[in-house]
Amino acid sequence: MTVRKILTVLAMVLLLPTSPHADIAAAPEVTVIWRSVLGSQLFNLYAPASLGNYFCLAGWRGWGDYPSDKIFYGPGLYESIDFPHAHANDPTLVALADGSWRMYFTYADFSAGNEAENAEIWTARSTDQGSTWREIQPLIGRHNGYNNAGGWEPAALRTAGGVCLWWHGTVPLLGMYRACFADDGIMQVTPTEPLTVPFQLLGPDAAWLPDGRLLMVGSPYGREGFFYLAALESYDGLTWTPLTGTTDGLLLSTPGDEIIITPRVTVRPSGNIQILFISRPELLSLGQTTVHEWKIELPR
């Protein structure tokens, strides 16, 4: 994520109306599962995505990667999906009905100007459980089927009919959207539609709750800084309300000494929530980046 994109995100947060004050849930037990520091292989990291024991995330391998974000995967995170004049970031993973895997990610071309206005959603397919990714192609373009907000930070989820994607739009239109696809994960079967939400989320991710509701977790627009994660629920994937048991949807917070961003959520059969997320001292950080795992009980 470049300085320009970071400044754009900060403007989005600061200019949007603030949500009502709410009590924040007490922080649950935190487990550090991965840490990178300046001088190590990877830094300035975002969006830790997992599928079973498989793990990938986006960032830079070193100054030679600047300003192009890459998606790192494989043993030791040595392999990458990258482009010479565009960011590859915000991966989300789903297992398809035929046993193959599909990755969806943000593709943002920075060769023509502000990448925050040119973000699209691309996809790749793996037939060897993530060892290699092929068939890399665009999926949601600058015109996303509803407006010209493109696609940024997708969240993918298997459904009875295939795969659904949720994402937020680029500046200046913003908004949150959904489109659904067939079992192959690329043939669109429902139109792109806007979501009805009480507030928008940055870096959203989605999961099924045991009772059939949908859960979405992300960074809430309008909160000062990136010290909070919020949660929404839905019965149809289009109309979302604050998660039952929370106050105004606010789920997690930090003391304020580090930001928390790009969560990836898994709901266990027990109903407990597992969240992987990035923390670091500031939005653009060339120092320590930590991947945390938080496990919390589902609010009731």
What is the structure about, briefly put?
This protein is mainly beta and 300 residues long. It is 4% helix and 47% strand.
What does this structure look like?
- This protein is mostly beta strands.
- It has one domain: Tachylectin-2, Chain A (5 Propeller), CATH 2.115.10.
- 4% of the residues lie in helices and 47% in strands.
- The protein has 1 helix and 21 strands.
- Strands 14, 15, 16, 17 and 18 form a 5-stranded antiparallel beta sheet that branches. The protein has a 4-stranded antiparallel beta sheet with strand order 1-21-20-19, with no helix packed on it. Strands 2-3-4-5 form a 4-stranded antiparallel beta sheet, with no helix packed on it.
- A hairpin with an 8-residue loop joins strand 20 and strand 21.
- The radius of gyration is 17 Å and the shape is globular.
The separation of the N and C termini measures 36 Å
Strand content is over 45%
Number of helices: 1
**How would you sum up the global shape?**
globular
Order of helices and strands: HEEEEEEEEEEEEEEEEEEEEE
How many beta-strand segments? 21
Structural key phrases:
21 strands; 5-stranded antiparallel beta sheet; Tachylectin-2, Chain A; 4% helix; mainly beta; 4-stranded antiparallel beta sheet; globular; 300 residues; 47% strand; disordered N terminus
